[in-house]
Amino acid sequence: MKKLVLPALIVAMGVGAAFAGNKAKVSETAYRFDESQGLCIETAQMCGEAEENPICTWSEDSSVQLKRLSNPTECGKVLHEILP
After folding, report:
1. Contacts 24+ apart (CB under 8 A), 11-19
2. For 33-82, how does the pLDDT look when each residue is reduced to its tens digit (9 = 90+)?
3. What is the pLDDT of residue 68?
4. In terms of C-beta distances under 8 Å and separation of at least 24 residues, what long-range contacts does 10-16 make, across chains too?
5. What is the SS3 string spanning 39-58?
C-alpha cells in the first residue's frame, strides 16, 4: 500500500500542474474604451490573463490597452497577449 501512495501523489501533482498551465492560455474577448462614446467597445481580438506576457493592445492603435468588460461604461482589468 505504501508503495502506491508516492507514485499516485506524483501523478496527481502532474495533472494539477497541467491544468494550471492551460488556464494561462484561456482567451476572452477584449474591449477598448471609446472616450467619444463613453463606452467599452468589443474588439475582434482575444487576450488572456497571463501577466508575464505583454499587454494586449488594439490592432488599429497600439497605444490603446485592451481590457476585460466590467460594465458597458467601464472597462476593467488590463488583459495580456496569448503566446503559443
Report:
1. none
2. 999 999 999 999 999 999 999 999 999 999 999 999 988 888 999 999 99
3. 94
4. none
5. EEEEEEEEEECCCCCCECEE
Beta pairing, strands 61-65 & 39-47:
unpaired
Give residues with Cβ within 8 angstroms of 45, minimum separation 6: 29, 30, 56, 58, 59, 66
Query: 69 near 30, Cβ under 8 Å?
Result: no
> What DSSP designation does 79 have?
P
- pTM reported for the whole predicted model: 0.66
Distance (Å, whole) CA 30 – CA 34: 13
Buried b / exposed e over 7-19, threshold 16 CB at 10 Å, is: eeeeeeeeeeeee
pLDDT at position 42, please? 95
